[in-house]
Amino acid sequence: MSLYKPLLLDTFVLTTINEELITYKLRGVIYYSTDHFTSRFITETGSVWYHDGLSTGQRMVYDGNVSLTNLETCQSGVATCAIYVIPSQAEPLSHQNSDLPC
Hints:
Elements: E1 12-17, E2 20-33, E3 36-42, E4 47-51, E5 61-65, E6 73-74, E7 77-85
Antiparallel strand pairs: 1-2, 2-3, 2-7, 3-4, 4-5, 6-7
């Protein structure tokens, strides 16, 4: 059992800036457990990718779809940091398959 409480996460956050409604989308979560950090990356299409430098090295491992994944915990880790972004309307694709992480 972890001593830390996980963050309560939403897949998006709405806020108003200069009278304009802005949507921030969840794109990453950092987890902490036993002196070690792991992470998940969430693509625009909702695919979740897991990374642990000790076990996956430089690779990310597919971890399901955001709508079916508990993002507040990951293996023995708890969510300690959430990364939200404002999606660009015209982001260039950096890969042939835009659903794969770098």
